[in-house]
Design goal:
heterodimer, A: mainly alpha, two-stranded antiparallel ribbon, two-stranded antiparallel sheet, 17 helices, 73% helix, globular, B: alpha/beta, Rossmann fold, 18 helices, 24 strands
Amino acid sequence: MSSPNLPVAPPAFSGRVSERRSILARMLSGPIGRNLGLIIALAALYAVGAVTAGDRFTNIENVLTIVRFASITGVLSIGVTFVIIAGGIDLSVGSVLGLATVVATLPRVQLFVEQTNWIVMVLIALGVGLLAGIINGVVIAYGNVVAFMATLAMLVAARGLAEILSNRTTQIVRVRGFLDFFRADFLGVPVLIWIFVLVAVVGWIVLNRTTFGRRTVAIGGNRQASRLAGLKVKRHTVALYALAGFTAGIAAIMMLGRTTAGTSTHGTLYELDAIAAVVVGGTLLVGGRGTITGTVFGVLIFATLTNVFTQNNLSTSVQALAKGVIIVVAVLLQQRFATRDRT
Amino acid sequence: MINDDLGPPLLVVRGITKTFAGVLALSGVDLEIARGEVHCVLGQNGAGKSTLIKTLAGVYSPDAGEIFWEGTPVTIADPVAAINLGIATMYQELDVVDGLTVAENIFLGHELDTLGMLRRGSANREARALLERLGHPDISPGREVGQLSPASKQIVSMARALSHDTKLIIMDEPSAVLDSEEVKNLFRVVRELTASGISVVYISHRLAEIREIGDRITVLKDGRSTASGLAASETSTADLIRLMTGRTVENVFPKAVPISPDAPVLLEVDGLAVHGVFDEVSFTVRAGQIVGLAGLVGAGRSEILEAIYGARKASSGRVSVGGKRLRPGSVRDAVDKGVGLSPEERKSQGLILDQPVYRNVTLSSFGRFARLAFLNERAERNAARGQLEALELRPADPERETRTLSGGNQQKILLARWLVHGTKVLLLDEPTRGVDVGARAEIYSLIRELAAAGTAIVIVSSEIEEVLGLADDVLVIADGRVVHAAPARSIREDEVLDLVMKGSAP
């Protein structure tokens, strides 16, 4: 560092600016304390499941089912977490997922893939997601379109394009290698879950341990200050939406693996599940604050809730109602914390 | 410490001009900064200090003028260019990110990383070293900045400025958020910086501070530098005040009308206080009288108006209108009893910019134009039209979108609102902010006419000459206290400024 050499000053004797805290306060503001509410909520849901459905709920097969169920929305949610922390929103991820499954399973594409390698199919799905994300980002950053509108337009347009390309048919995946890989288990755990775990871990590292991640928080927390500090805010914005699109591409691959078919209706309303999971996980919709861990908990809470209801033969309508209540309660709690932080 | 023998001055600014939407913010500013000096920039609110800083920091690009850095002409196109030259800026509105740690804030924009992966250990170590040099080893580099006090945030901001290869640090009113002990620490740091050859541009309006820390002074007035490079120790306070206030607006104020001694007292403020903001403010305003509150931004003037209006809950004291006591903290009650407020931030607090003009005029009187919850729009328009004609709104079109009108005309709309409502007590906060000189005279005579028609008026302004020219009586506010009360005619502008400065000096 090239800062000037100043003499070391004696500490200021004014005690007013001292920022020392008790151990308890430090623990509560650490990762455990911050996610305490989520851990309790998840444990409570698990307890309800164990009591009402017993072994049907608690056996390892069912737990894996819950996590596998969570994995696709989970991957989407990781991308959306970045966008929301930066103060944006992405409504298009579910729809882009659908489009990517369609493009990757077009007859012509599959023919080409069969002649080459199943990895090409993966790359095509990723490419579609990335491209859609870059378009979102450019329209928002350089066209100065509000993120809500730009990604709403992408939601509608991507779905429309997917319908045109697929002619509204369901395109079965014929590439053996692809299915063999994504439908397999590894160390007794489905590959889909491994992908979710991998994406979450990489997401955590990127958010907390890279320059890109910290700048994302800075832009969401204080856009003006970030600009004054010399950050290229527009370029960063494009990268963020590209990242969200990329995770939609990963989720599309997982969806192809799970359902063995591509169709324009894949991922319908997934964007809302992803946003709900992110917000329940404690990420502020105004940006500047949020965690990957919280998002993972948010996703698991919704997946567990669904499973508990299914195991007890309750209708999806009741599930939807319960989800709505959880979202409102989570946001209310967030606001409590937000106001308490300020005082 | 000024080292003139080291070649050309660090920074020379010549004839910088900057216009915003047709309004001249800077018109020909000269500034010369030597190496290792503390150069104070002095000026009243709106004199162009902030615009000058932002021009040097690469936020605004000047329309005309030259900037020389170490003798070579430069253009500072964006914040990165300023940082690369070695100019760091500490803004008045704290420019830190609450969600990041202290170390992350310090290195934001020039993070210590390898292939994008942060080297957190090095960042924390270097941040700690910077904070220790600034006399604050108590601020932990890993701490989230959102949990720090404003004073500590400022230290973080200063550490960030030092984390670059900095030759010039611009400090915009750094003492505004500090108590006197913290100001001492700040001065110690500033002296160490200059001793090591760094120059400091120090913006403040506290004369006492400038005398203590400054080497030389440049004075701004109405976007112009009225004096450059005065020696801080040899220039008299009277000279500085004259340079800051020298008149450009002449005789724009209407003649005061004598108030009859039997005019009823319409507003009575008795021992009003808001905890931690202002104390024990008492005064009365008669029908036809204009009382002015003079003081610096942040002295508590606007807050006094807000407390009278009920927008801010008073912690003690009472406000009565026409002998009836107002319910504290109730805007509804204040409006019902005949109090109107024209807020400082017209655009964000006073007007609905996307609505037509007439809607903004009738906003506080909807009840009168409503039948069974449906608004009678024709009656609304007619009432608005009548007032707007009287106020000479230009263009006199009640259907026009409010956004498209000039500042002066928007102010007239606010006045019209309270005229339609039949307001007895009118509180005006900075009524001529963003209004050009010609329109000011019109606003002044409108305010005087309102008073002549029997309204009691309280006016707050940062421009002392405006308060003295318009008001019948003046209360000088400093640090949340009334430090002086007098008839406007019996006190001079420099006396008020002196009171204001003394009152808020550390």
